Amino acid sequence: MTGPIKLIYDYRHTLYATTLNDVRGRYIGSTLGLAWMVLYPFLFLSIYAVVFTVILRVRLEQYTSIDYVLMIFAGLIPFIGFSEALSASTSAVISNKGLLRNTMFPIDLIPVKAVLGASVTMSVGLIGLILSLWISGRFFWTQFLIIPIFLLQLIFSIGVGWLISALTVFFRDLVHIIGVVIMFLMLVSPIGYTREMIPPGMKPLMAVNPLYYMIDVYRGVLFFGEVPVGSLLMLTVLAFGFYLLGFFFFNRLKPVFGEYV
Fold first, then answer.
1. Of the residues 15, 52, 197, 213, which has the fewest C-beta atoms closer than 10 A?
2. What pTM does this model have?
């Protein structure tokens, strides 16, 4: 258990510096630059809100249209964070061939760096969401739990990142498949609807979808002012389970990465 935790702690300063450099490099050459970190989640929300409130005309009797948009945002933010982390970590190893034999920066940290860099946009969107909730009068003590919940999501994403980046070394098609997987997850995750709106036939699918528990926890503590204990326990188990599994899997395969990359 201490192995993967100690690794990240020992190289925390290096991780911070390289992640910051990657984030800055991502926006070099673009007209708006770092402003995209703010614009992206809100543009994504705008599209989602138009689809559900204008095209599909979804309405919740007890909530106004603004409340409903904020509820969507509470589910969309963790999805954006996970989807970007998944996309970035998929090709993390194969696109960093020069670091495979770098003793100053362990190869194990490349997927971690990718996940951390991809989570910056989510962090900005999360701050914007909380401010919007406070302005609309939704202030709950449970909102202060968002920091440990965000850390749980990072732990889960890093574990998945280790798994998917290692598999991509041997199965390059995953780089192209992952976009379809993200689209599927967006459709089957409760972003635009609550758990009460899920049809009985869809509930078994939700039970095996990790994002269901993640979104339910975020929406509960941020929007409803409650702690969904069952979903929080599942998210905790999944986070540490994938974290340990991913670290073990990555370490078993990394000795042969050089033969395939």
1. 197
2. 0.89
